[in-house]
Specification:
- About 5% of the residues lie in helices and about 35% in strands.
- The strands form eight sheets. Strands 5-4-1-28 form a four-stranded antiparallel sheet, with no helix packed on it. It has a four-stranded antiparallel sheet with strand order 6-7-8-9, with no helix packed on it. Strands 10-11-12-13 form a four-stranded antiparallel sheet, with no helix packed on it.
- By secondary structure, the chain is an all-beta fold.
- It is built from one helix and 28 strands.
């Protein structure tokens, strides 16, 4: 093959590497000299270097007691909220996770318990069908890294809590069975880093599981200080913040190194049936339903440094039973 053109593309205008992140593209066959040139220019993909999140997509779930297709785009810089491309069908009590290019939304209840998932591609705000789960999913939770998402499916098609989990591989949009959790559960929450996810099992009380992605190993994780039900969670590479739900203000801070649990900054109001997403600096918590069983637009911004809670940009409509995914790679920082 000729070496006249960069990357061994036989064209005078070959593609330029897309950037210094591990998920950036550098198609072709490149000489060491060109690799060094683009690395110096900050354009060559580097393993382990991951783009931090700039936005999150929130599926609002139930609005005025009815399932909705509504989604919001939350831009972390400036706490700006705008409309996002709608779901393919109305739904609620879903779950979501993703990587730097796409979010995968399990729609939950679409009139009945559903296997339906949507793929939300951040560039262009494009929504398409994603590979379905292998069993119905309702009131589940998700954690993952740059390559896979682990979905705890929640209630089964008989309305009973299940131990079932799925592994979703982003690059191929493939779905497979994953290692079951230690207890049947629903209405839980999850956060994690690039190595494992911590799953709070919801109706199973204070029980948490650690799902190690390499080998798909499930083990016990340090328990919550109080039962966590209809809860939400977000975190970065070192900690996960778990909102208790249950119309309480309590949050736990889970430090991955050492698997230690301590009090986290309390929510601004008692709430349940919320959702959360974040980047390496902040987690945005949509509070869902308050202590009077009324859906609200309130979102909290949780700044991990100092565990500081402040107001986040409100949702465009009062809602509960939603889900959220960020365009950062969860649990990994630059």
């Amino acid at each position: 093959m000729t070496r006249r053109y960069r990357g061994s593309f036989v064209t005078a205008n070959p593609p330029i590497p897309a950037g210094p992140y591990q998920n950036s593209a550098a198609g072709g066959v490149w000489s060491m000299a060109y690799q060094a040139q683009y690395a110096q220019a900050g354009l060559w993909p580097i393993a382990g270097n991951v783009l931090d999140g700039t936005l999150a997509i929130f599926a609002l779930g139930f609005i005025c007691g009815s399932r909705s297709v509504t989604r919001n785009k939350y831009t972390y810089s400036g706490d700006v909220v705008s409309s996002a491309t709608a779901a393919t069908t109305s739904s609620g009590y879903g779950a979501a996770a993703g990587n730097s290019t796409r979010g995968i939304f399990a729609l939950g209840c679409t009139g009945s318990f559903s296997t339906t998932r949507n793929k939300y591609t951040y560039v262009g705000d494009v929504v398409a069908s994603a590979t379905s789960s292998n069993a119905v999913s309702y009131a589940g939770s998700v954690a993952g890294n740059s390559t896979i998402g682990i979905f705890a499916l929640g209630l089964d098609n008989c309305g009973s809590p299940a131990t079932t989990s799925n592994k979703y591989t982003y690059s191929s949009d493939t779905n497979a069975s994953a290692t079951a959790f230690t207890a049947a559960s629903y209405a839980g929450s999850a956060a994690g880093n690039s190595t494992f996810g911590i799953f709070s099992l919801g109706n199973a009380g204070t029980t948490r599981n650690k799902y190690t992605y390499s080998g798909c190993v499930v083990s016990a994780a340090t328990s919550a200080t109080n039962p966590e039900f209809e809860a939400s969670a977000a975190g970065n590479s070192t900690i996960g913040i778990f909102a208790r739900g249950s119309r309480q203000v309590t949050r736990n801070r889970y430090t991955y190194a050492g698997d230690t649990v301590a009090a986290g900054g309390a929510a601004s109001t008692a709430s349940a049936r919320g959702s959360a997403a974040g980047n390496s600096t902040v987690g945005i918590f949509a509070l869902g339903m308050n202590s009077s069983f009324v859906s609200i637009t309130t979102r909290d911004k949780y700044t991990y440094a100092g565990c500081v809670v402040s107001a986040g940009g409100a949702a465009t409509a009062a809602s509960y039973g939603g889900s959220a995914a960020s365009n950062g790679i969860v649990g990994v920082t630059l």
